Amino acid sequence: MAERTPDRERERSMPRIRLDLPRERRARLLPEYDPEAFGRMSERIARFLGTGRFLVWMTLTVVVWVLWNVFSPPSLRFDEYPFIFLTLALSLQASYAAPLILLAQNRQDDRDRVNLEQDRKQNERSIADTEYLTREIAALRMGLGEVATRDWIRSELEDLTKELEERLDGHRAHRGHPDLFPAGDDRRSDVPDR
After folding, report:
1. CA-CA distance, 41 to 74, in Å (whole number)?
2. Residue 55 host element (H or E)
3. pTM score > 0.70 for this model?
């Protein structure tokens, strides 16, 4: 028991790590940046690099650079004929432009993938709804096939009327009576005596 007491005291003296609270941020040597903001900036740059305005400005810059270094006084020239500094500047611009364009394309691919997934889910829901409605319409048609419509009742009544008329004509011809119910002033009651 004597050994447990110092351990317990040591545990009590140490700060307890709580799992319900987020960890405190550690100091970092490298600067932090927001990847989303960097991605948006790269997309803006990539969009600008793909415009005619960029080509015009780049062409004007190169033309002014070359004209300045060819026709200006020798003391004001900063890049002589092989234009090594211009080549370096253009290489630097290209080395940054390529990854920025790729980053913008990757972000666009991610957005397209999310949109395609949403479209696929929407299409699945639409197909399921269409199949459900098709089944419901088929069930209604089957149900309507069993329901007596006005035209069907009318045709059945016409058939029954024709059949009754044929029977009546046959009965008259057989008994020799002109009418089943003779027109007369027979005031007798058809209710039997009680």
Report:
1. 40
2. helix 52-71
3. no
